[in-house]
Design brief:
With 210 residues, the chain is mainly α. Helix content is 74%, strand content 0%. It is elongated. The chain starts with a helix and ends with a helix.
């Protein structure tokens, strides 16, 4: 992988997400709000303790389980994160972010095929869910399934035509497939959005052209 590609993949798949609004009773609890604030400050061990106390008071709050999962993920404890996301889904089966993030956790556990299953489950909940489409494109690319990778990235671009990461990776996939003209078209589109990324993509295309 290129340097930018690796950087983008890491940033996309390891972002703590905290919900600030919703109807869960737990959102009214000060311990929960403290946990969210601590997580946002990267004080994850302390955040976990606050989430645990909040969930003792309201164990059926899916967002609290989700945020605890995000905190475990930030600590690199991906199996524990999956448990939290699954508890959130047990309460709210349409919690698309939780379904997507199980896939993210499986990527971090190097279980790409399991990740794909959960991204597809997320898309059954919300067919145009951006994060799952993008993650599918990236993981299919990593696994060498270029046909499905292209399909996923094209669906991302149907939702957001200027998504730089999708354009960059679509160019890489075309280059891997030795469709150099199609790859260069993606680099040309990207040059208008992010010249640095476009230059990196062009270098990657050249490397794959021979």
């Amino acid at each position: 992988m290129g340097l930018l590609e690796t950087k983008n993949l890491r940033e996309r798949l390891n972002r703590p997400i905290s919900f600030k609004s919703g109807t869960d009773g737990v959102l009214k609890l000060s311990r929960y709000r403290t946990g969210v604030a601590l997580a946002q400050e990267n004080r994850h061990e302390e955040a976990l303790e606050e989430f645990k106390i909040a969930l003792e008071k309201d164990p059926k709050a899916p967002r609290a389980h989700f945020n605890m999962g995000q905190t475990y993920a930030a600590l690199g404890q991906h199996a524990e994160a999956i448990d939290c996301y699954e508890r959130a889904l047990g309460i709210d089966p349409k919690f698309v972010e939780a379904q997507n993030n199980i896939g993210v956790a499986y990527i971090n556990l190097q279980r790409g095929n399991d990740a794909i299953k959960h991204f597809h489950r997320a898309l059954r909940i919300a067919p145009k869910y951006y994060e799952a489409l993008l993650n599918l494109g990236i993981i299919y690319y990593q696994l060498g399934n270029f046909f499905n990778s292209i399909k996923a990235f094209k669906k991302v671009l149907a939702v957001e035509a200027t998504d730089k990461i999708a354009i960059y990776h679509l160019g890489l996939v075309y280059a891997e497939w030795k469709d150099i003209d199609a790859a260069r078209k993606q680099a040309a589109i990207l040059s208008k959005l992010d010249p640095e990324m476009a230059a990196d993509l062009t270098r990657q295309i050249v490397l794959r052209a021979y």
